[in-house]
Amino acid sequence: MEIQASDVKKLRDLTGAGMMDVKKALAEAKGDADKALAILKEKGAAIAASKSERATSQGLIATYIHPGDKIGAMVEVNCETDFVARGDDFKKLVKQIATHVAGMQPLYVAPEDVPADVIAAEKELYKSQVSGKAKDVASKAIEGKLEGFYESVCLLRQPFVLDQDKKVEDLINDVVGVVKENIKVARFARFEVGDR
Length: 196
Description:
Helix content is 54%, strand content 17%. By secondary structure, the protein is of the alpha+beta class. It folds into three domains: 5-51, Orthogonal Bundle (Helicase, Ruva Protein, domain 3); 58-110 and 154-192, Elongation factor Ts, dimerisation domain (Tetrahydropterin Synthase, Chain A); 115-152, no CATH class.
């Protein structure tokens, strides 16, 4: 099957993936753009997982000030090399994350950053909500509620403010798949006038 250049361009524009990666995905998907997109996402997640332990000593700090100048955010995102940090894909990602922080008000970067006492308090609350249920049912319900809690307070688990079908960690993994480097959100701060 011959892959059309217009299909390659369309998928490249959508994902930011390299031309050869897009061509391979389209060939594997027998020309089906939706299947090729899924293949590229899967490969991006696999690349992200394989690079997750590599050191991230370069990066950028970006800010976002919401119109009206009452809400702002600052975020530090790290990558492995200065070359990637200066690239457009990385710069766009960091700016998107700053925008997300301003809009969605996360409290922590990832679930492992949530203090143990906060998790214990949440679990106690959930236990009281599921009292009287069978132990295995209650246990699954508590874990489900805890996952929902992480989605509401952890930056990486939150649905991305500009595309609710993607989590912030998916957005990062997509860029990792393109730049082939580990990317980590180091820290962030959110400011709102009158909020102390």
